[in-house]
Amino acid sequence: MTVDAFVVGAGPNGLAGAVTLAQAGLSVTVLEAAATIGGGTRSGEVTVPGLLHDHCAAVHPMAVASPYLGTLGLDRHGLRWEYAETDLAHPLDGGRAAVLRRDLDATVRGLGADGPAWRRLFAPLTAHYDALSEDLMRPLAALPRHPVRTGAFGLLAAQPAQWTLRRWRGQSARALFAGVAAHALSPLTGPGSSAIGLMLTAAAHRHGWPVARGGSGAIADALAARLVELGGTIETGTPVRSLRDLPPARTVLLDLAPREAARVCGPRLPARVRRAYTRYRHGPAAYKVDLAVEGGVPWRAEVCRTAGTVHLGGSAEEIAEAEQAVSRGRMPRNPFVLVAQQYLADPGRSAGDVHPVWAYAHVPHGYDGDATATVLERIEQYAPGLRDRVIGLTARSPAALEAYNPNYVGGDILNGANSLASLAFRPRLAPDPYATGIPGVYLCSAATPPGAGVHGMCGHNAARSALRKLGLTVAV
């Protein structure tokens, strides 16, 4: 059987790209080197039997709000979004916590004197989030469909996060935004460092921060089921070491980090593209710890016991200091730690009164130390007695994360540094950022616009580029 298109890599971008090609009538085969599909959206037992852990991506505001995934009817293939009572809590000293809720009014009330300023910033972004997302999830070269709103957002997003923090005087609002901005894994002083914080916060108020019932793997499973429904196929345990390994096809999508794509493309890759791919800059790393906790985490701040996501960073100043150190290759004494308690929204992940708790710390790129104790200490700082409840633990260093998913070079789970230039022009400055310079071959990983996040838009956009070149109808 002749295959029209091959997709190398079955992460959410590879699968979304494959579905887009199949919707246009192409016969598509996805080739995945690992034994299972999903890339960063895999789930399974890693601590004690019966506990379901997410291996990487855990909470999915960008997936539930994805302009493309939302068109696919993935609920027909078992995808269900579940919500914790509280979207995000950020504990502070003295047993207090700042709280981000889907309900903008409730969030504003909780921020006291800073509430009105929070509303002034986020009410317009929330109201027009879907229109903004439609533009911002496309490559920069694409003409915006909502130019006035998108342009206004661009002026806000280009600012350093520390400038945005000046809008608030109290510790709660400042820490809350700094923690969300820190998801970019970049210094809060850099131009453009407000962008991800603004989008994730607006996404929280518009759509919430949900988890996938049954684990993040359910997202990949639903995409795979949609692909099969369209006639596509998936082959796991099938590494592609060179384009020469592939039979002739009309198009190829590579859900690979740029350096790996350069290796696979070999001498066919134009010299200018090879230079860009091999010099592609990766960002800081994650150090991941999964816990099996009897009775749940004993948070001092009661609201944290209802939160799907908990940010452990202290004040905005402490977060900025830690992120600056990490970006300079130094391990901070008190790193920023993210904790997810998916079982609060999806109780089926637990086994009786033993619950899976997901955590990772921001660490320098390629960090080769053991940060397990540091992560536990950071949680214990806000949840005294945690260690007495831990009955199972596993940790993944940056090297282990790269071994698990080769796209996570040096432990960089975002597949690229988030400077203003890289956000705008990743993976290289080109009219079509997905084109490799080899006819019919396209890059579709999170190293392409719009970047990291379980939204499938990198794959969808790359597939659209391929289809336009083939003269075929492009899915919206």
Automatic annotation (TrEMBL):
Pfam families: NAD_binding_8. This is NAD(P)/FAD-dependent oxidoreductase.
